[in-house]
Amino acid sequence: MLGIVTAGIAPGLALMSYFYLKDQYGSEPFAIVFKTFIFGALLVFPIMFIQYVFKVENVLQGLFYEPFISMGLLEEFFKWFILFYTIYQHVSFDEPYDGIVYGASVSLGFATVENIFYLFANGLEYAFGRALLPVSSHALFGVIMGYYLGKSKFSPDSNKKWLVLSLLIPFILHGSYNYILITLEDWLTMMIPFMIFLWYLGLKKVKKARLMSDKHFNQQIIYEKPFISGK
To answer: How far is Cα 97 from Cα 112, in angstroms, rounded to an integer?
Structure first.
């Protein structure tokens, strides 16, 4: 049991540490990041219940509806909802890169609990594959969501456009991931290039968010200089 719990937690913890430590302008308060992680973990239960009802009642099932709507959209919407209503206006969200940290946190909370449940049901031998695919993909969906939330909060214009994209793009990517996994017989031949693309896109957003944070803090320094110098 301890081995399964450890294997279930380890990939999420490793990925969370990676994105957390890349914050070059002071790490986010651990308590807020941990709270976001817990919110993501708790989301597993209502989402699993809704998905179970959909399956029993044969609602939103099929080659398109199940991977994109009852799985991709449902999961990404709840994660987006948590970020928007608990973190987006929070005082700790004070630079664009913070969106990456909080997006990864809520997604990895969800992925970690889901991973533990899966390993309990199916066995420890799936731990490596789960770390490479579902856990890392959830982290990257969260990174991309957080990038656009940060862009929305700190851009001088088009805030609504970036806010829409913060849900739309993770939903499309998550739905595509599910579609490959569920509907394609030879799914691995498509999943490998998809995951390479997803990592490329996620890390590109991380780099862009860090550059946006650089610009944000440099502007703050320029604005504060006259007051510091007494002019």
So the answer is: 22
Please choose, from the candidates 57, 71, 56, the residue with its C-alpha nearest in 3D space to the C-alpha of residue 179. Answer: 71
171: left (phi over 0), alpha (psi -120 to 50) or beta: alpha
* Nearest-angstrom CA–CA distance, 11 and 209: 23
> What Å distances lie between residue 135 and 9, 56, 172, CA to CA?
10, 26, 17
CA–CA separation, 231 and 210 (whole Å): 31
CB 111 within 8 A of CB 141: no
Structure-block tokens of residue 174: 């998550």
> What distance in Å separates the CA atoms of residue 84 and residue 35, rounded to the nearest whole number?
14
pLDDT in tens, 164-193: 999 999 999 999 999 999 988 889 999 999
Element (H, E) at 211: helix 187-229
| Three-class SS state of 223 | helix
**What amino acid occupies position 47?**
I
Question: What CA–CA distance (Å, rounded) separates 182 from 10?
Answer: 26
| 45-96 pLDDT, tens digit each | 999 999 999 989 888 888 888 999 999 999 999 999 999 999 999 988 888 9
Residue 117: is it exposed, middle or buried by C-beta count within 10 angstroms (0-12/13-18/19+)?
Answer: middle
C-beta of residue 141 within 8 angstroms of C-beta of residue 106: no
From residue 193, give the alpha-carbon distance in Å to each of 132, 134, 180, 196.
13, 15, 11, 5
